[in-house]
Task: structure prediction
Amino acid sequence: MPKTVIEFKNVTKIYKLYKNDKQRFKAIFFKKTPYKPKNAVNNVSFKINKGESVALFGKNGAGKSTILKMITEVTYPTSGEIIIDGRVSALLELTSGFDPEFTGRENIYLKGQLLGINTDEIKKLEQTIIDFAQIEEYIDQPVRTYSSGMKARLGFSINVNVEPEILIVDEALSVGDEEFRRKCIKKINELIEKGVTLLYVTHATKTAQDFCKRGMVMQTGNLIFDGDIEEAMQVYTDTIKE
Result:
């Protein structure tokens, strides 16, 4: 029987939209402060098994980002249950968790610890991460001196080289130049071949087809399709036309 590594059970996420910052601040002290509820995700259920590669499609505001934030525990569901079984590495905001005053090398250890990896493990992976990121002599310079592309390459390199069990990719393949993009795609394919579970969030249907056999489509907070990747692409294309 396949092992389930991500499961959503009737998950709903409601954001409270306040009229202004004053009302938002007031709500901290007064529960009856008026707000407008926004259903970002509405009663969504699905399972992703170990080793599956799944594309998640949806227009802006469809609920994709909220699903990712709940999987990575940036935010939590209003109701329902989420079960995650495995080390999650998320290629979302590639430079989050970096300290600008630390060197690139020091940030490898900082970010690794944030991902739940001990110092000995990081030490073994350190040179692999540095080589993949292609930032050479800058590795011992403060990250505040890096270009945005260098920071993104280092962030990507850490996330894909820490031996994740679940890899979440959100349009992160736009990192760097064409040669580095090809390198990123090759690395993700290697991880898939090793049995890493992939959740790939994108607007680019062609790229999703290269990675995934299954597709899920979100529309206004609802999961409207879950099945074969080609059918998912067609459903998504239809939602864009609408």
About this structure: Residues 111 and 229 are 33 Å apart (CA to CA).
